[in-house]
Specification:
By secondary structure, the protein is α+β, with helices and mostly antiparallel strands. The chain folds into two domains: 164 residues, no CATH class; 83 residues, no CATH class. 39% of the residues lie in helices and 18% in strands. It contains eleven helices and 14 strands. The strands form five sheets. The protein has a three-stranded mixed β-sheet with strand order 2-1-3. It has a three-stranded antiparallel β-sheet with strand order 5-4-14. Strand 8 and strand 9 form a beta hairpin. Helix 3 packs across helix 4, helix 3 packs across helix 6 and helix 4 crosses helix 6.
Length: 341
């Protein structure tokens, strides 16, 4: 009988009391909400980590920025300045690797300008026709859809910070990192745009897929009188016989198939100057007669030298890294940390 009660008591202990004791000493249980909160904390920590600029700039950590409208010179942290530049120069919906390439190109261009200043008390200015585009954060945010403002700015900050300190060099020096919107499929040599001598890292390269972007094609249609008036801004004695097919004619092309020289009546004008006078988006154009009008059918957007932004975006869509993109558009270069130069 005693053995029975002993076995009975032991069974009760094993089946009921022992499990209860073990449950009480469990350290912590996890609910579904706990897991979600921990995941959110992890993602937030990752975002904070990616946003944090840990590069220790030993030089060029700040630059002097000239605001052309006011004449004020502002000293600003380099990568803070670049967020304003990248957001002004490239659409925020472009691929991450394209935006990273733009960040490195813009940083390089800035350092090149700082080493080769054209402004008396500043490294660079905020005028895109002189240096490179720059807008305030507030202005940039106001131009985006409200639902995209926060995410777009976060994206810009991330690409700048993730490439912090990176610049493009040739023979150990920062390059003059030109860029443009759309090459029309082929980039241009600087000598054909600004004269002087060519730079070894700025060669003619081809890029596929740019025709899918709105910047690829455009046209300007002018009446005969409008054409004469625009050309008279520079050439007051211009005379064109519109009945003579030889009086409006492309005479010469560059190696990248852009217009080098055009004949307009009694003047031969460069393709670059024609682009400026007639408001064309590039020098890659055809001239088409249309009864009383002259049509200029244009490919590409910009001077065509250096990196094509739409070309960079297309390369990124196809899986290229920002290093791949930069090495495609700039020949014989190295990507280095700025402290190494």
């Amino acid at each position: 009988m005693k053995k029975f009660w002993l076995y009975f008591s032991l069974s009760i202990f094993v089946c009921f009391i022992l499990p209860a004791l073990l449950t009480k000493i469990e350290v912590k249980t996890y609910s579904e909400n706990d897991n979600i909160l921990e995941k959110q904390d992890y993602i937030q920590n990752e975002e904070n980590s990616s946003n944090k600029n840990e590069y220790d700039y030993q030089k060029y950590g700040t630059i002097k920025l000239l605001h052309k409208n006011t004449g004020e010179v502002e000293e600003v942290a380099l990568d803070t300045y670049l967020c304003n530049v990248v957001s002004a120069e490239m659409p925020a919906d472009y691929e991450i690797e394209a935006l990273k390439a733009q960040s490195v190109v813009a940083r390089t261009y800035t350092i090149y300008k700082a080493q080769n200043p054209k402004h008396e008390n500043a490294d660079i200015c905020d005028d895109s026709t002189c240096c490179q585009a720059w807008v305030t954060k507030e202005t940039r945010l106001s131009r985006w859809e409200e639902s995209k403002r926060e995410s777009n700015w976060q994206k810009i900050e991330n690409v700048v910070n993730q490439t912090s300190g990176k610049i493009i060099t040739y023979d150990g020096k920062p390059i003059n990192a030109f860029f443009h919107a759309n090459s029309g499929g082929t980039t241009e040599l600087p000598v054909n745009v600004w004269g002087g001598s060519n730079l070894p890292y700025l060669q003619i390269v081809e890029t596929a897929g740019e025709e899918g972007y709105t910047q690829y094609s455009s046209e300007v249609i002018l009446s005969k009188d409008e054409l004469i008036e625009k050309l008279k801004e520079k050439y007051s004695d211009i005379q064109i016989n519109f009945e003579n097919s030889e009086d409006i004619k492309i005479l010469e092309y560059t190696d990248s198939n852009r217009v080098k020289t055009v004949k307009f009546g009694n003047h031969e004008i460069s393709g670059v100057e024609t682009r400026t006078l007639l408001g064309l988006k590039s020098t890659n154009f055809e001239i088409i007669r249309q009864d009383e009008n002259i049509k200029f059918s244009v490919k590409g957007y910009g001077h065509g030298v250096g990196m094509s932004q739409t070309g960079a975006d297309m390369m990124a869509k196809q899986g290229s890294s920002y290093e791949d993109i930069i090495k495609h558009f700039y020949t014989g270069i190295e990507i280095k940390n700025i402290n190494e130069i």
